[in-house]
Amino acid sequence: MLWLFFFLVTAIHAELCQPDAENAFKVRLSIRTALGDKAYAWDTNEEYLFRAMVAFSMRKVPNRETTEISHVLLCNVTQRVSFWFVVTDPSKNHTIPAVEVQSAIRMNRDRINNAFFLNDQTLEFLKIPSTLAPPTDPSVPVWIIIFGVIFCIVVVAIALLILSGIQQRRRKNEGPSEVGDAEDKCENTITIENGIRCDPLDTKGGCVNDAFMTEEERLTPL
Amino acid sequence: MEKARPLWSNPLQFVFACISYAVGLGNVWRFPYLCQMYGGGSFLVPYVIMLLVEGMPLLYLELAVGQRMRQGSIGAWRTISPYLSGVGVASVVVSFFLSMYYNVINAWSFWYLFHSFQDPLPWSVCPLNANRTGYDEECEKASSTQYFWYRKTLNISPSIQESGGVQWEPALCLLLAWLLVYLCILRGTESTGKVVYFTASLPYCVLIIYLVRGLTLHGATNGLKYMFTPKIEQLANPRTWINAATQIFFSLGLGFGSLIAFASYNEPSNNCQKHAIIVSLINSSTSIFASIVTFSIYGFKATFNYESCLQKVILLLINSFDLEDGSVTADNLEQVKSYLASTYPSEYSAIAPQIHNCSLESELNTAVQGTGLAFIVYTEAIKNMEVSQLWSVLYFFMLLMLGVGSMLGNTAAILTPLTDSKFISSLLPREAISGLVCLINCAIGLVFTLESGNYWFDIFNDYAATLSLLLIVLVEAVALCYVYGLRRFERELQAMTGRALSWYWKILWAVVSPLLMVGLFIFYLSDYILAGTLQYQAWDASQGQLVTRDYPPYALAVIGLLVAASTMCVPLVALGTFVLRRLKRGDTAPVS
Q: Which PANTHER family match (chain B) (predicted)?
């Protein structure tokens, strides 16, 4: 009697979990690709962990808090490391709808991945699309900040150069006129120094300095 | 008393200015392409021959003319013959067209430079689609680098007819680029002379860093081997020689008037022969150096893509046949494929269409030039390097230096004749003339920031300068040797620099180079005529690739105008001068 019951249960289980069965999902792991030398072998213990993670995810769904590990069935494990799984309800006669399983897995995808040291690409749930991480968008795009800095530097440098150019030109324009004023002043006022008039000193032709001349004549007859 | 002409503070500034002008983006993105297309290592043979026969003599000719006449291009050619000042005017017109579109490249370099300070680089990941389940469709079909270039940077329209609006982001970058150029040319040779120290030397620093990095990349040797294996049979192809001649010609920047302008600020006793040889040799070696860097990067990118392709095929096989993960590697892939094909023929034929034949050769064969190389291929290679932000910043900074260096030469070609003209320089100070030129160029350059701007850019890039320059330099060489007189110029050069002109230069100036120019001119003219309708590459967003389209009639009209505007200057000004002289002679005749 017991044997019959056992066979019945396994038969029902076998029917519930089959490739392409209703509410069944295929899982594919690429352990060697992800971990290289540190890859672990996929054995029944790992399968147990997987069933525990799926049961854990289902318990987070309202109305499904009583899901046990035994409710999660695995079948068709291949060398690729791929298999199919279904989640049955407490009566073990029906499988939980795919939509519920899908949303439960999506919510806890991160923790399932971490339990196996894998990521979304190496632990694939076919037919359950992973939510892609949105790119971080800062409030002000970075490029505008850098653009603003360089723009201000260039504008300030241009302004400085233009202003110094204007200053130089103004100084050059005033310079020759200042020298001209001084010459005019000298011509108008006749200054006397040491009893000798200054104007002979201003003439371009150069002129004899009387004070000097007499000394020389006295001392050097040669 | 006449105001003294501004001079370079020392001859080194002049050499650096010429190097900074000649070594530009063409050395980085055109020469490697030509090398790859026309025989790899064997392309160096026609390249060096053309350098000796065409590049060096014509460069020396322009520098000598500028140094002797001590004026910009218009004044210099007016001194040689009043009927030939049209050559100078044509140079100024071509330089004007060039500076209009060339600074847009600097704007793009700024854009990419500013975006390099993010982690991850914005062109390394595709943006997500609306419901966050996958990536944007256009980005999936093309690649993330192409998407960033065509959609985020250019926001390109499907054809040249749909112009769209001005994109404010590239417009801002263009404004910044022009402000930077204005800052550098503001004070004339005083400021330009200091800036060229940086724009000439910094690109070499970056190239050396990239050389070391490039050669240590995985797969770099594949690219180098591919490039340098000579394909001797390409030497028999006439296009190889024509492209070598064209590349030397345009790479040195002859005919724009910039070299004449730079040389006019020299001391009369400057040894411009030595400088001409130095500048042309440095320019060519930079091209070869840059192509070594480019090809090691190519090799890295091709190897990376090849290995990714193999990984995809392996994944496909082990997923379809549930083989153990890690059992199929690149080495046994072929054996596994044949085993599977024989053991499970039906399933294998079901997935056979998706199995790509990955080939390293085909990855290396994708030869790209121009903006595609700089902004798509290089960025794709950079995103796969470690610390990609650093490499990206270095690379775009180098592009910026190269571009700004060439812009300094272009604007000098426009400004020197303007400031030499007594009429204009009496009206406005030098800063105002430079500012006005930059403002006009910036305003017109906004056309290239439209959605269809890149198509107009291609028009200007392909047609604004090519034919006109050949004509200008041809007339220059002929005018100097036969109108002014080679012996007269030789005597003046000797008096000026103290060195005699050797027979080598005389033969090249008088005979060889003009013949080469005539040959090139005839070739290009016939090429354009035989091609029939002109076509362009347009980006199709729905397919994620480039498609070929015909130019609409108004675009063809613009092309015709571009070419005519510069080439017609030569005969028109000659005619105008002739008519004016006739009139003057008619006026004075009754008096005498």
A: SODIUM- AND CHLORIDE-DEPENDENT TRANSPORTER XTRP3, SODIUM/CHLORIDE DEPENDENT TRANSPORTER
